Amino acid sequence: MNPLLKLRLLDLPYPNRCDCCYERIPYDQLLCPACMEALEAERISYDDWAADQSAQPWDSGAVLYSYRDTARNGILSMKEGDRGFARYAGQKLAETVRKVCDPETLSFVTWVPVTRRRRLSQGYAHAENLGKALAKALDVPTRRDLLTERQGTLRQHDLPSDARSLYAQRFQYSGGSLEGKRILLVDDVLTTGSTLRRCTDLLLEAGAESVSIATACARVREKAAADGQSVP
Ligand SMILES: [Zn+2]
To answer: pTM for the full model?
Structure first.
């Protein structure tokens, strides 16, 4: 059967839906046009988040959207395992990454892990589909299982920002030497940066030459508040 016809027929019982608003969309679309337009209005840059880049262990950062409205809906559906927003954001994030680092110099893309229990129950890490889509768009290999998260009872978003660096100690490195590797580390949302700082430190301690970070969203107001700056 013609593969396009097969997709069209599949679309009848299993309609493709936009991850951000759940409207029906054509089978070959990742998101609906209204959400793609809304996302453009939610664009921010890494510099909006990073008031003091020298405080960060990574070489460069790439961020797409403010964590609100449409982008927030996309992140929430990505956590549920939907791939539309992850693939769309992965492609867009690749364009942003290219502006701050040369993909040809990157050794691999990896992402912030989840606990083994969570991975077994849901089958993926929440940043994994984004990381894979980004790696594909950049034509860079991926590596998983370098970083692990120990099981605990608290979820990070339940914690105040000053407890987040303590929480980040749950992440561990479990791979071999990363001597000379240049790594792109991916997560869904950048808030205080404690998780990505911890994961970056672990990769650098394992010998990585450099780490850059890329996230779909950032929470600029929360970061400013955690830094003790006044928030308008
Ligand atoms: Zn939509």
So the answer is: 0.88
